[in-house]
Amino acid sequence: MKSGFRLSFWLFLAPVLLWLFLLIVLPHIDLLLLSFRGENDMGDLVWTFDNYKNFFIEPIYWNTFVRTALYAIVTTFCTFVLALPVSFYIVKLARPRTRGFLTVLLLLPFWVSELVRVYGWMILLRESGVLNYFLLKTGLVQQPVEMLYNDATMIMGLVYTSMLFMVVPLISAMESLDDSLIEAASDLEASRFTILRTIIIPHCKPGITSGAIVVFMLALGNYLTPNLMGGKNSLWFTEQIYNQFIASFNWNQGAAFGFLLLLLSSGIIWIGLKLSRQRLGEVAA
Amino acid sequence: MIRSLPNSRAYSWSFNLFVICYFIFLFAPLLVTCVLAFNDSNFPSLPWNGFSLDWFISPGPERLGIFHDEQNLRSIWTSFQTAFWVAIMSTVVGTCSAFLFEQEDFPFKNGLYFLMLAPLVIPGVILGISLLLAANSAGTFFEDSFGIDVGLFRPSFWLVVFGQFSFITTFVTLVVSARLKKFDSSLEEAAMILGATRLQAIRLITLRYLRPAVIGAAAVAFLMSFENFNTTLFLVGSDPTLPINLYLQVRDGSTPVINSISLLLIAGTSCLALFNLYFSRKED
To answer: How confident is the model at residue B164 (pLDDT cuts 50, 70, 90)?
Structure first.
């Protein structure tokens, strides 16, 4: 009996350990080590802080870094502001029969590849795009307007791509909110804003945290949307990493950038968890 | 405010209008993409020149429909193979990992659990570059010390599979764990009292119970792999997957053949999504 228990334990443990150590732990240690390597004047590989020094010396690098972080926060906030009323409507206002249908409808676009969604926005918004065609037809504009390749469109694209990850946790958080709390508050003449601020948002806090963490991380690590919708000067930090790896072939510099981005994302996620007094395990489940 | 309370007309109507606008926002890009796949034009834009299936079945050379487009067809096939292997590997390892964290007790369990969740918070781009670097280091190491050249360590099909597997397994673990939490372990104990070994009990009882969750997780894994871009971007070798191939085409100017591929993708994923939804409904 006892030996049977041990056998199954090792059978479960071995693949998990192989997976986590070979594909997660080792590569990231390697990333950290290589970020401290660089060529000296003689062309030999040595240990050095140069890769990190470059990051702080060159304004374009840390400007992009700060910009990416700020825009990712803005994206997270916009996603929250848009997702809150939508999930509230679906859980508390829609008729029970339409509710299931609306939920499925809400999820469907996000099963489709991000590339297809971004491409859809591109043919809608670009100078020769569908929206401009209608604007010209109706005479609202005389010249086609280029709506692509600016920061606002890029943020809209990021909000669009990561919407789902805010809506789903918010819906499940709101499902557990007892209607009678809102009814009681309403009987006591609380305004809608007060109900929102003192009942709905505090109750949904776990959902908001997990949604915000996922959306932030996805926006921060996104490459497609800034690259295709933000145009030439979108300057997203993942693009800098890509350039170091593929264009300049400077892998050590790229490793340093990668590690900085990893630090940034885990740092902000850690702060988010501390502020909401939650643990990663709770958020994931 | 809510269903059970009296709402003013203006409130209900403005809320309805908002939700309608939201759904238009959600579906507009997909709808436009699908409709323009059938436009009889050389560019994915209006005006509408009439209905045409050219971008699906035209054999070229002027208009190359998707069913004759060798390059895109090959990348679809590559994506299928990748997703197939990722789905199988991540389902097997993810199920093991769900059993490990739900049913076993061992030292450092919390630490390992935290590590298992880590891929959720590592941006896909970082995962891609660290695997690329590690594979390159390993390749150099093998070449220097044993003088053998291992193809696996260069950007290639299998490196993409491993890269996607490394984070998709976490999702599979979470899905299967959620189902395993609801499992009544006395069923397994009963089987073992009646003489079954632990592994027999798992195979005959627990896995049967888990089947809907495992199939659903495999479907999600397949889809996630099929559509992955960020991690794949750095690991891809000479045969690109569909998202990478599409990206290169979109970046360098596009023809409506991308619309027709998108239409097929939307149809395919919707089917898989509904299939998955059906299974997860049955589970409850």
So the answer is: very high
The answer to whether B133 contacts A112, with C-beta atoms less than 8 Å apart, is no
E strands, A58-210, in order: none
B229 in the same domain as B88:
yes
B161 plus B39 within the same structural domain:
no
The answer to the question of residue B279 being in a domain is no
Claim to verify: residue B203 and residue B80 sit in the same structural domain: yes
Check if CATH label 1.10.3720.10 holds for domain A58-284. yes
pLDDT of residue A2: 46
Number of independent structural domains in chain B: 2
Q: Do B266 and A20 touch (CB under 8 A)?
A: no
**Mean pLDDT for all residues in chain A:** 84
Among the listed residues B268, B237, B30, the one whose alpha carbon sits nearest the alpha carbon of residue B139? B237
Task: Dump pLDDT digits (tens) for A127-185.
Answer: 888 888 888 888 888 887 888 888 888 999 999 988 888 998 898 888 888 888 888 88
From the number of C-beta atoms within 10 Å of its C-beta (0-12, 13-18, 19+), residue B66 rates as buried
Based on the fold, state whether residues B142 and B209 are members of the same structural domain: yes
Nearest to B29 among A124, A220, A221 (CB): A124
What does DSSP assign to residue B179? H
Cβ–Cβ contact A181 with B under 8 A: no
Q: Residue A1 pLDDT > 60, yes or no?
A: no
E-strand stretches of A121-180: none
Query: What's the CA gap between B280 and B176, in Å, rounded?
Result: 12
Nearest to B1 among A34, A192, A269 (CB): A192
Which residues 58-77 of A are in CB contact (within 8 Å) with B? Answer: none
Q: Across the interface, do B131 and A23 touch by the CB < 8 Å criterion?
A: yes
Distances (CA, A) of B60 to A135, A159, B75, B262: 34, 38, 19, 19
Question: What are the sequence ranges of the domains in chain A?
Answer: 58-284
Is there a single domain that holds both residue B217 and residue B85?
yes
Q: Are residues B114 and B223 in the same domain?
A: yes
Q: Do A133 and B258 touch (CB under 8 A)?
A: no
pLDDT digits (tens, 9 = 90+) for B59-95: 767 777 777 778 888 889 999 999 999 999 999 999 9
Phi, psi of B59 (to 5 degrees): -80, 5
- State whether B100 and B10 are in the same domain: no
Residue A80, C-beta contacts closer than 8 angstroms, at least 6 positions apart: A166, A208, A211, A212, A215
Give the domain CATH number at B100: 1.10.3720.10
Query: Which of B29, B243, B272 lies closest to A120 in CB terms?
Result: B29
**Residue numbers of the domain that contains B50:** 1-68+254-268
Confidence of residue B283 (pLDDT cuts 50, 70, 90): low
Mean pLDDT of B186-210: 84
Q: What is the value of ipTM here, to two decimals?
A: 0.85
* Domain co-membership, B115 together with B223: yes
Nearest to B234 by CA among A20, A203, A223: A223
Tens of pLDDT, residues A25-42 = 999 998 898 888 887 777
B183 touches chain A (CB under 8 A): no
Interface of B with A in 238-267 (CB under 8 A): 242-243, 246-247, 250-251, 254, 258-259, 262, 265-266
Question: In the prediction, which pLDDT does B90 show?
Answer: 94
